[in-house]
Description:
- The protein is α/β, with parallel strands linked by helices.
- Among the domains are: 7-91 and 291-375, TIM Barrel (Alpha-Beta Barrel), CATH 3.20.20; 101-284, Maltooligosyl trehalose synthase, domain 2; 416-571, no CATH class.
- It is 45% helix and 13% strand.
- The chain is built from 34 helices and 28 strands.
- Strands 16-15-14-5-2-1-20-17 form an eight-stranded parallel beta sheet. It has a six-stranded antiparallel beta sheet with strand order 21-22-23-28-25-26.
- A hairpin with a 4-residue loop joins strand 8 and strand 9.
- The longest helix is centred in the C-terminal third of the chain and has 30 residues, at 741-770.
- The relative contact order is 0.08.
- It is an enzyme of class 5 (isomerase).
- Residues 12-504 form the Glycosyl hydrolase family 13 catalytic domain.
- InterPro entries: GH (IPR017853), GH13_cat_dom (IPR006047), Maltooligo_trehalose_synth_4 (IPR013797), Trehalose_TreY (IPR012767).
- GO terms for molecular function: (1,4)-alpha-D-glucan 1-alpha-D-glucosylmutase activity.
- Its EC number is 5.4.99.15.
Amino acid sequence: MAIPVSTLRLQFHKDFTFDDALSRLDYFSGLGVSHLYASPITTARPGSLHGYDVVDPTQISAEIGGEEGLRRLVAALRERKMGLIVDIVPNHMGVGASENPWWADVLAWGERSQYARYFDIDWNTPVPGLKGKVLAPILGSDYAEALAGQIKLDFEADNGHFVIRYYDNVFPVSAASHAEILRHVSAEHGMDDADAWWRPFDVLERLDEPEHLRDQADRAFGGLQHFAKSEAGQAVIAAALKAYDGSDEATRPALHRLLEAQHYRLSGWRCASDEINWRRFFDVNTLAGLRIEVPEVFEATHALIFRLYQDGLIDGVRIDHIDGLAWPGQYCRKLRQRLEALTEARPNDAPRGRPWIVVEKILAQGETLHTDWAIDGTTGYDFMNEVGALLHDRSHLPELKAAWKEWTDDDIPDDYEIVAESSRRKILTEHFSSELDSATRALQNVARRHLQSREVTFHALRRVLIELVVHFPVYRVYTGDDGMSEQDRRLLHKAVDGARTSLRRVDLPVLERLAQWLENWPNAGPQSEVNPDALAPIDQENDKAARTAIQRILQLTSPVNAKSIEDTAFYRYGVLLSRNEVGADPSLFAMSPNAFHQSVLRRAKDFPHAMLTTATHDHKRGEGVRTRLAVVSEMPERWISVVNQWRKLNQQRVAHIDGAAVPPTDVEIMLYEMLAGAWPADIAGQPAQADELQDFVERICAWQEKAQREAKLRTDWFVPDTEYENASRNFVTGSCAPGTPFVGEMVNFVREIAAAGAINSLSQAVLRSTVPGVPDLYQGTEYWDLSLVDPDNRRPVDYEARNTSLQAWNRAADKHSALQELIEHWTDGRVKQALVASLLQFRRDHPGVFGDGDYQPLRVDGAKGQHAVAFTRRYGDDVVLVAVTRFPWQLAGAVSTPAIPADVWADTRLPLEGELGQITWHDVLTGREIAASNDLHLGDIMQPLPVAVLFGQVR
């Protein structure tokens, strides 16, 4: 059980705790999963619904049950022979002020803080007023407005600290400022003995050793705490607060001077993109990057995880945002080494095998995961992309692109690469300009150390770096002590080739020099045979500068790609939204069965235990939405016809602001896609279902608002255009009101494609559960998943209903009859749950076949051969044969249930050679036996479901 047989992802938060999971363990076990897979369990910001804003990695979140709750959960898991995988966040922490003790210490002590090296802070930034400080861009207004009454000096009597409050945000006041405040007040009051309680703070400013500093600080603040309890002390504190009152014009300058003396600079949040001097997670001002490459930081942030693993409470980890780290490969190898060293110390009831480690990594076209990282694979976005592409029909892409172009009148290009490039340029220059400048300065620092490059200017380097990042075809490349791999060199060359087409000739030599340095570092140098003029380190000091520069560049390309693709281009380009998904590339619209088989074989060879997923807490639309929209790729003429009809029906609802239509056509088309993909199949839109329809429409409105802000074309998160957004919302609510002609037509279209979409969903679920890898089931998606982007995809799950239906399925003696009944009532999702549970239970009972069995594609012969994908898994004498349906609309038309009549398959069959033709097969889903044959006809084995999973043994 060291490697999971299957996982179930759970999102823990204050409303779903360890005890909540414990109370549902019988259900999870009944599904057949071997491991729960938890969102981050360390202490996050209060009320966090996801856990990625960690504020204390040394403690398990009390909100979700603390360590006692975790131990209760794991004890119950072990009783059921199950385990736990946890999500860890090594790249960043949630920061604000007092919530994160490490960050608060940095704000209090600046560079003298013992945690100053923990965060990726540029203490020598050239930004005016920031040298030696940390930018704190948390003000909702400009500084002057906030100073006049919103920012307040306060005193915390329970610990003897003056603090700065800005609404719920609390910032420490430095020791020097404590001395100044108290000295100032004492002078005003003529207090002769004042030095007894301000001088200890003054002394603190001359101490550097952390141990002495902490001891002296405890005494100083303890003394002030004690003094503040006296009548005289209370008078002094009250006088101090009055002396620095920003709401009073007379004392406002004093408050300003106090703020200027801190180790941080409060600013409006809009300043962050241009001036922030610490690495963020993406462009989130409340998430600060960690320097996990520093041994001290690595140990401090992982101490709890190591202890939990040694104590047998966890069996492996999922590493969040691996590309944010300075040196991902080095980190993964070190983590593996540390965990394996603890394996022998684990208790007897915990598995002693290889700890399971997977990484959240987005793989682009032509990119493969590095095999030397000592990990088990990715978290499955690559599989999600491949299985989705398999279900799309490439042959009709030209018609869909032509329709998009006609509808949008060239406002949005039909070439995805153009959209992606323009999105990267916007994100880099507008959202990451500070990070861009930081990388450029680090690069210039290297350039100035060599005679051949000392006159390469900051702005020349910045221009070149912009074009290089804009044309990066992947999230990032990797380098280390051995330089770059051949794959990374090739990907870097592609970025350079793209940059070369958009730079002025005067900047091309700088580009070539930068490219050679990046490619050959750390082996290139002024005396190198590679290029005598290359930028490269030549001694220890220069090596440090080079490492900083390379790190800045590589930690820039990843967030820029993520924000520009996932959170910008995907909301601008709407040819078919089912291919706009995390890990996917809309330009890779579809994948042939052969290409799919080859991708599976590669994964089986290099990462046989990688995670396989089709839904996550980060997906843009649920797996059921994507599989339903995949049907549109089979029927472009019908789709174009209904969209044109819908546009006519809703034409009168289009508003006009400053002469422009709202919503604009691109937004309107993407709205129709989401409505068609996510519309619940059991909602007919009649007045009797008004409440259900209103709930769905509210979810769509929330999606549309987020989608338009992410697109950053007519409104955005920085400055929302509320008039535009309200008009867009009114279009949705008006069009989707109960009884409108549009609702009737949408319901009719959904009825046409919903069952075919469900067939795709069943095929996807079977592939996830049977190809090489570890299948992951995202919470609640054992029923149909018609969720939207977060937070919609993190809504509470109705486990009571799921438990009831699972028990009924597990008790059913006649599985064939039970399946037929579930198919008749397919819209409630129970048929998918029955399929998922049957496969996960079967995997649990046959771990060898799925954990170590080989994978062999099968040929499909006959008139409908292009509509099926088949393969076998074999381990010793055990064989599993799998076949799934593809392109159900073209195969069977508008079916009313997710079942395909046997005669539709005609003569389509699986030719079995040699030993396979001698096997008597057992149908895993129905329990029936299928006689040995050299030909298995799909019409026979794909009944009553449009998929088949057969088990047999070679005799």
